[in-house]
Amino acid sequence: MIRKHTAKSRALRGVALFVGTLVVLIALAAVAQHAGSVRVPGSSSAQAESRTVDASRPATNGSLLRSVETTGRGSGNNDRHGFRIGEMNSDDSLYLPQVFYGSGGSAYMSIAVADLNGDGKPDLLAANQCGVGICDQGGQYAEGTLGVLLGTGSGKFGQVAIYDSGGCNSSFLAVGDFNGDGKPDVAVLNQFSGPDCTGPSLVGIFLGKGDGTFQPLAPFPGGDVVSYAITVADVNRDGKPDLAVGAGGSLGILLGNGDGTFQPSTDYSLVGTPSSIVVTDLNGDAEPDLAVSTFSNVSVLLGNGDGTFRTPVAYDSGGFQTYSVAVGDVNGDGKLDLVSGNYCTPGCFGNSVVGVLLGNGDGTFQPSVVLDSGETFTTWLALADVNEDGKLDILVPSLSDVIGLLLGNGDGTFQSPSTLNLSAFRLTVADVNRDGKPDLLAATRSSYIGVSLHIGLATRAVVTTSGSPSHVGQSVTFTAAVTSKFGPIPDGELVRFYDRVTAIGTGATASAVATFATSSLSAKTHTIKAKYAGDAIFKPSSGSVTQVVEKYPTTTTLTSSPNPSQFGQAVTFTAHVTSTGPAPTGKVRFLDGTTGIGSAILSGGVAKLTKSNLTVGTHPITAQYMSDAFSAKSTSSVVNQVVQ
Rounded to an integer, what distance in angstroms lies between the CA atom of residue 191 and that of residue 170? Predict the structure, then answer.
């Protein structure tokens, strides 16, 4: 259904569209002035509307859109909707190029991952701001949608099933078992409601059937404010999932009844409009606490364990328009820290910034340390160990359709930002192909979800030789140095050595170096290859080196006796063969000019040939050593044998 503006809806719309530009972000401050709470099915205002949505409506568009194979870094690779297609440098990439799937809607979206049909394979859900292709039709707006894409377990997803979200401008979603039947359910937060999108926010509850589909939805209007964030957690520890909803300048807690309904909201006033919510234990008392980003700061609400919370404490986020907060131990002290994503610096000059607030372990935090994100106008923030070194890293999508990456040092500091050329507006990190690695699921500003699979940490193997050329039988040591810009290679990793395709030995890494020594190479030019096998974290790599193996040089000398000789007299030719290596063995051939006159076997480096049938005249006699496995050929100087 197309929703048209009334005068009231136009006024609200100026502050309702999600954070796409700085103008919209600044306008959101006006929303925070409203008061009220958000309600869901089962709250006191649940009877105000009885519209039922067919939750089994089939998909209309979301089949696999494309698989992008571009590599390298460049400009101009934009799709027809204006966002950049994923590009990676294959030598250093952590992620495959994005594969895009239709989300079942248009404009800004939020995504989540859950196993909706119980097959052990991750599935995708997307809350779309509005329906497919109808957000930009002459200032008209449409109802939001929920898109569901069942996963294959290999990182691929099927056709999208589209559900009416029950309201307008769906902004966030969260997954939990709201009715205790062991099947995942979904809560979708809508910023507006009503036939003309002028009504208050509402939460639509989709109860799962356990097969990837949902029961019919009966949405209900909520409070009189615009909401932007939602999450699910059991904040009163009764085993029933509860909802935390950010609305206007407050945070609402809706305790679950365990049957898919929720109690009326208990609201906590905040400075600013909530933009993201994290539930975790921040002070080590085993009770759920809240970390909330607002468009003004980061607020912390310590839990009492009964579903209530202490007075919020606001912290400077280090930037302007804080759109996201993430929680993790970034300095390895066992205490949770806060990391905030900020749309820009105070005054909005230069790049967007990230704020790192180290935790004291008691629910309080140190002042924000501000980091350059490397990008302008970033839109979300996620923490994940993308290089699998045991240290949390920061990912920040931006309106430039790239993701800034700050690799963690493990002590609360981070390396200078680098860039992943992947399109993203919001970002979810999950293992969707079940290989134990963090994959990236990107909610774009268009109608697509970008899925980029982690492919392990790139490595490089450089092979060197102890010396080339070498001689036959001489020991040669080959050294493979395996490195990765993402961290050190563990000791004991397998490296195999090959003479072209023939395996000749193995080595194990020690301080990222593996060696193999051999004295068995034959006399020729060899291509020695070292192949690092890789592990669960680091990718395989290989390198090669040319090894020239030569035989030891020899020297052959020739004498004759007697010289001159008489016709018919016996003449003995004696060849002496010496070598710089092992004692030569084998055969010596004797030639009169170019004509062979006989051969003899070396014994103690000496070979003799006696001839008595030489014709009268001068004969140019040479001795040619024919070589053996270790000794090279050599030819003596000419001895002119005179026969009278």
Answer: 6
